[in-house]
Design brief:
Length: 374
């Protein structure tokens, strides 16, 4: 195997059930990647992440470049050995920080110069440097450097960022070191403009990548605009390569994107929500800060496979959250990461059985009973 191998195993409508094989193991898709920005899925040990059923985690080039330094991680055996995570790892290129740290960066054709949020020091990130850092980290999936814009934005600005991202894609491809079980993904841009998205996809396909990501969504546009864009854009991407929707998201976003043919997802929502007292369950979202839980002896879900969901009362979890105890963040994050993995397991099984429509209908009925995420 040279690069990554992706096999489509089943379809249900436009939804896909696949397998992505890497040097550190296979990923059954559709799959959700817990975010381990700085080499840790916040509040969890890697054993807890594994027990939840996660197959792949995400690391971040910008943050690991600053601390502890990609070269140091490389000398210590790469991100797998450094963190104790033995499965596949995907690394973001730093493109999201082009948007999120816009006040601290300077953008040119060559790349991006950031002022570190830690000490103010200057760091240049070019497409070549980003790929080199990800190589030092030993990422199984390397992402091209791109420019991500917050939406809404003027069409001319969206087009400029898309064209720059295409030029950076070609430079990223030229810098990438091909190895068995390792691959490079291109990232489409173009906002919610179908024509720009199509041009982006055509440009990336001409360069050639192991997988294709849809970037620049869930960055300010309404959900219906995001889903309409995915539905129109997914057919622009190669059938025989994995499709990754970056930074998404809520469980209902994931379900709808799977229906439209997306294979991979990541988002900070399950971990960030766990640290702020929010628990995702099959009965809906539970806010453990709410006083109505302080005398409740029931667990979050007595039938869950997750010890955090099954073995602790809501009263105890409420106490931990209100007391700002570290254990509260750990247990609720574990519950949430496990819930997201259960969500993906259910979607995979439904696609295999050809019953995704019924599965989604049941999911939406549960959502309607529980109400929106607080």
């Amino acid at each position: 195997m040279n690069g990554l191998r992706f096999t489509l195993l089943a379809r249900d409508g436009t939804a896909r059930r696949g397998r992505l094989e890497t040097a550190h193991g296979a990923i059954e898709t559709p799959a959700f990647m817990p975010v381990g920005t700085a080499g840790t899925v916040k509040a969890l040990t890697m054993d807890m992440v594994r027990q939840a059923g996660a197959q792949i985690i995400l690391g971040n080039t910008y943050h690991l470049m600053l601390r502890p330094g990609a070269e140091r991680v490389g000398r210590l055996g790469g991100l797998h050995r450094f963190t104790g995570w033995t499965g596949p790892i995907l690394t973001d290129s730093g493109g999201f920080q082009v948007m999120s740290l816009s006040a601290r960066r300077k953008l040119t054709e060559a790349g991006v110069t950031f002022r570190s949020h830690l000490d103010g020091s200057a760091h240049e990130l070019t497409p070549e440097r980003s790929v080199g850092i990800q190589d030092s980290l030993d990422a199984n999936v390397t992402m091209q450097l791109d420019e991500c814009l917050k939406l809404p934005a003027p069409r001319g600005e969206v087009e400029r960022a898309m064209e720059l991202s295409l030029r950076w894609a070609a430079r990223s491809k030229a810098a990438f070191r091909t190895r068995p079980g390792y691959g490079l993904f291109g990232i489409t841009q173009g906002g919610t403009d179908d024509a720009l998205r199509r041009r982006s996809a055509e440009g990336l396909k001409a360069i050639g990548f192991d997988g294709y990501a849809i970037g620049g969504l869930a960055v300010g546009e309404p959900q219906d605009a995001m889903l309409r864009t995915i539905e129109a854009h997914a057919p622009d991407l190669p059938e025989d390569r994995p499709r990754y929707l970056m930074g998404v998201g809520r469980p209902d976003d994931i379900v709808e994107a799977v229906r439209r043919g997306v294979d991979l997802f990541d988002c900070v929502m399950p971990t960030r929500s766990g640290r702020t007292g929010q628990a995702f369950t099959r009965f809906g979202t539970v806010n453990l800060r709410n006083a109505r839980h302080k005398d409740d002896p029931a667990p979050l879900d007595p039938e869950s496979g997750c010890p955090a969901s099954r073995d602790y009362s809501r009263a105890y979890l409420h106490h931990l959250v209100k007391s700002d105890e570290i254990l509260g963040a750990m247990l609720l994050t574990w519950n949430n990461v496990w819930h997201y993995q259960d969500l993906m397991r259910g979607l995979r099984a439904a696609i295999e059985a050809g019953r995704l429509g019924d599965h989604v209908a049941a999911f939406k009925a549960d959502e309607a009973r529980s109400g929106p995420l607080p």
